[in-house]
Amino acid sequence: MRIIREKTFSAKKVLEDVVSKLERDHYRDFEVSRSIPKDCISLTTDLNDLVIYLPLDLEYSQFGIDSFIRSMVPYARTTTVLDRNIYVMKLHGRLSVTQLVKLVKYIIEDSEFCVLIDKGD
Prior knowledge:
The protein is α/β, with parallel strands linked by helices. It has helices spanning 11-24, 61-72, 97-111; strands spanning 30-33, 42-44, 51-55, 77-82, 86-92, 114-117. The protein has a single domain, classed as Alpha-Beta Plaits (2-Layer Sandwich). 34% of the residues lie in helices and 24% in strands. It has a 6-stranded mixed sheet. Helix 1 packs across helix 3. The longest helix is centred in the last third of the chain and has 15 residues, at 97-111. The chain is globular and about 50 Å long.
């Protein structure tokens, strides 16, 4: 019997992989920042604890993001709460690096810009 181990990646390594794949595919409408902006969609790159931050004026984007995540990973669920004038969407489930890149590309194509949060771990 084979037992397949899940790969564990640090958030910094995942961030580097996502940035390199986006640049390789000629996506330029993103930036890496340590702070959460109030005017565009941003997300962390931790695969075990993915958090997406949505500004108040883009609150309806949560439905498209949720359905896109469910199309990739049917068992994954999201919850959204309003916290200090910004919506916080948490993913209950796990994405791979490739799925995270697809999610970032979807956000860039849908809202025209995305910020990747660097937690500095």
